Amino acid sequence: MTLPVLEPGRLFARLRRDCALEWDAYVRHPFLTGLADGTLPAEAFRTYLVQDYLYLLQYARCYALAIYKDGQAASMRSTARLLAGLLDTELGLHIEYCAQWGLSEDDLAREPESLELLAYTRTILDYGQSGDILDLMVSLSACLIGYAEIGLRLLADPATRREGNPYLHWIEVYGGEHYVALANQGARRLDELAISHGADARYAMLKRCFRTTVLLETAFWTPRPLRT
Ligand SMILES: Cc1ncc(C[n+]2csc(CCO)c2C)c(N)n1
Predict the structure, then answer these.
(1) What is the CATH number of domain 4-220?
(2) What atom in ligand 1 is closest to the CA of residue 140?
(3) Other beta carbons within 10 Å of 57
């Protein structure tokens, strides 16, 4: 699998190139080195997994907002399918995966959202609410496409430990066919919206949104539990 989304001339490729320093800090974060060589402490991964479950719930709200902000039946239908897939399938898979790490559904539901999660998801929802469908899709792209880039790179990297690496499954999911196809689909939609909603004329603002979401996605690798 490849990510044609990185080809020049495509909106995502331009955003990624113009925020290259921030992007590299996100996709080459020490958390990921720890996943690749298997040295990440299990507790750090558990903390991340709980927050990621809560993140996916907020992501479902973003999909719902994307339907609201859209105006075209075909793309509304396709986002509705993604939303149903997330709520009916992906969340269930995440719960099963968390159970393998000793986390029950109650553990997931009980944990408060971290500051990083709150800042990240509410910022995306705010960009989407105060902007249009293009602002929202740009704000979602770092997360959707970044994980595919990370998964593909780690799968192809000879330094990634395969035998006895407890994190290999995570890498295989995000570098796998299903997830990479989802990322490419999102990037294609972004290119359509770039034309229909005039990305060139408002590029400076789109880049600011993108940069902020990349920084927030980077902070998400190491969420701090929010406790009173
Ligand atoms: C912090 C964070 N960022 C991106 C993903 C990647 N991801 C995996 S499933 C999904 C929803 C697509 O239906 C997305 C965006 C993640 N899990 N957590």
Answers:
(1) 1.20.910.10
(2) 15
(3) 16
